[in-house]
């Protein structure tokens, strides 16, 4: 069964059941709330799929969506023979909007999709916020996870620039988007406003990709900006401290940017406390966005790990 929605208490006793086994886990949490509708997802299985291999499920970063994984997902699917499923997290992409954004809730949302698709076991990969979700899922439901890949995020210490992130959200929320603008004009306006926050053109393109036009012709952001702003500091920006002491004993790979500061070599011993089988690859020429900074090396690293494990 899924993690159940419970009345607020300081401690919850939650029962996590996969199709193959059940496990009782206990952790400190806020109310665990599952999205009423299913998360949005996209399945890549156009090439040969080996039914004996667990599908790979992708988890995107903060202010992203599952579509960011589409290009690499198609290559991974072709080279590993695994079905690849890209999820949109709650309040991101085409998934339902919720006021709360807690990693226990995001784990619960994902399990609901696995149950709908009748998937008994998964391999998972997540970048940044998605990496936190993957780590939480593997620690809470180890019997559900065949293998784990974490991209440039550490469970030991958060190194997100919160002031910068909050300024980005504030800027996005205050762009004067009039329905009379064309999409090109609206994106140019949003990009111009964001230039006051960051000179990183790749990042601005990433952020502006969230801009969409509704059925009524109004512009809006695919991401739930108010919810992200309200949850950033206390929930999204840090790994749940109540998971300290838990272990995932399955195959684990951390793919890190050699020029990134999100995972430092001083973190590795404590990361191994959570994930004793963890292997680490630091890719030269890559910062936090490893998969776009060094796409070929990233894809080769992921496929090698999945084919061997």
UniProtKB/TrEMBL annotation:
The keyword Nucleotide-binding does not apply. Its EC number is 3.1.1.116. Keywords: Hydrolase. Residues 54-293 form the AB hydrolase-1 domain. One of its GO terms (molecular function) is carboxylic ester hydrolase activity. One of its GO terms (cellular component) is mitochondrion. It catalyses: 1-octadecanoyl-2-(9Z-octadecenoyl)-sn-glycerol + H2O = 2-(9Z-octadecenoyl)-glycerol + octadecanoate + H(+); 1,2-didecanoylglycerol + H2O = decanoylglycerol + decanoate + H(+); a 1,2-diacyl-sn-glycerol + H2O = a 2-acylglycerol + a fatty acid + H(+); a 1,3-diacyl-sn-glycerol + H2O = a 1-acyl-sn-glycerol + a fatty acid + H(+). SUPFAM superfamilies: alpha/beta-Hydrolases. InterPro entries: AB_hydrolase_1, AB_hydrolase_fold, Epox_hydrolase-like. Belongs to the AB hydrolase superfamily. This is sn-1-specific diacylglycerol lipase ABHD11. It comes from Leptidea sinapis. The lineage of its organism: Eukaryota, Metazoa, Ecdysozoa, Arthropoda, Hexapoda.
């Amino acid at each position: 069964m899924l993690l159940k929605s419970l009345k607020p208490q300081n401690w919850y006793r939650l029962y996590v059941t996969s199709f193959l086994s059940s496990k009782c886990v206990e952790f400190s949490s806020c109310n665990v709330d599952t999205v009423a509708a299913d998360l949005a997802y996209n399945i890549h299985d156009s090439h040969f799929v080996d039914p004996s291999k667990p599908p790979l499920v992708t988890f995107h970063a903060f202010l992203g969506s599952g579509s960011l994984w589409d290009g690499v997902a198609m290559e991974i699917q072709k080279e590993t023979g695994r079905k690849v499923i890209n999820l949109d997290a709650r309040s991101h992409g085409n998934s339902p909007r919720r006021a709360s954004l807690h990693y226990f809730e995001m784990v619960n949302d994902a399990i609901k999709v696995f149950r709908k698709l009748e998937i008994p076991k998964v391999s998972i990969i997540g970048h940044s916020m998605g990496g936190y979700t993957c780590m939480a899922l593997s620690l809470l439901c180890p019997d559900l996870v065949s293998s784990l890949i974490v991209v440039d995020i550490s469970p030991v210490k958060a190194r997100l620039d919160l002031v910068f992130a909050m300024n980005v959200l504030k800027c996005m929320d205050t762009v004067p988007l009039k329905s009379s603008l064309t999409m090109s004009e609206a994106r140019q306006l949003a990009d111009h406003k964001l230039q006051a926050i960051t000179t990183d053109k790749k990042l601005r393109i990433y952020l502006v990709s969230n801009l969409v036009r509704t059925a009524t012709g109004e512009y809006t952001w695919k991401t739930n900006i108010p919810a992200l702003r309200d949850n950033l500091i206390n929930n999204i920006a840090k790994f749940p401290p109540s998971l300290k002491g838990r272990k995932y004993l399955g195959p684990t790979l951390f793919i890190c940017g050699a020029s990134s500061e999100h995972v430092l070599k001083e973190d590795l011993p404590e990361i191994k406390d959570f994930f004793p089988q963890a292997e680490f690859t630091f890719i030269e020429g890559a910062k936090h966005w490893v998969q776009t900074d060094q796409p070929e090396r990233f894809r080769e690293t992921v496929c090698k790990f999945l084919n061997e494990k």
